[in-house]
What we know:
The protein is of the alpha+beta class. The protein contains six helices and 16 strands.
Amino acid sequence: MRELTFTVSTEDSELTTLDLLRKLGFSHRSITKLKQSGGVTRGGEVLRTIDRVNGGDVIRVVIDDSASENVVPNPDIRAAAVFEDDDVIVFDKPPFLPVHPSILHRTDTLANLCAAMFPNAAFRPINRLDRNTSGLCVCAKNRHAASQLTKSVSKTYFAVVDGIIEGSGEIDMPIGRTGDSIIKRAVRQDGQPAVTHYNAVLYKNGRTMLEITLKTGRTHQIRVHFAHIGYPLCGDDMYGGDCSAIDRQALHCGRVEFSQPVTGERISLESTLPEDIRSLIE
Length: 282
């Protein structure tokens, strides 16, 4: 459980509890859960959403965020936690580590590690990285944090592509599924809008390192966009990349920024480029 305490300001006097919670950033779903659990109190008395608060009131909010899924704990998973507080934990995920369990990966994922670290807590990754993509993965420790982080997280990726790309640019092309595949994607006119911004950082060995930010977050967006314009990611066998020098797509989430869900403090974290990607352009 996560317990938060707020003191009502003079300007918020006479607000309903519902309006106060909304102003504090709680989502509709979080407020519904708090209402059901009696998780908002004043002086030990449960506050209804229609009750009004007064300046100086001390409001206690208890977030009961028990796990709704049965994930097997596995403390032997290796993924370094580079930041942690009461609401957020950020992992530096190595390549080949899945984020979520699946038929082929039931006990060897980041979710299994979190189940061991935080028994009975729900697993809430905010930026979900592909199994072969490395880098920073932001996870919320409770429902309220997840709601706030979804609105505040910004990510910067680094990729190495085959060929030379100069300068900076934008790729604005819709992405959708390829045929009946549930995994592979392609640029399609009937796809969902997808916008990728990039800046060339370094050219070497007939390859380019790119710094990439996303306006949208479609499945395989970076991989699909650069393959479509003729510059597939090195190691990306699904989308035509050269796999002779690296055995996974050369894609790394190297920087994240987000606002702490309760205090609003802006936090910036970076991850060093892994050796297998670095060796492609060194």
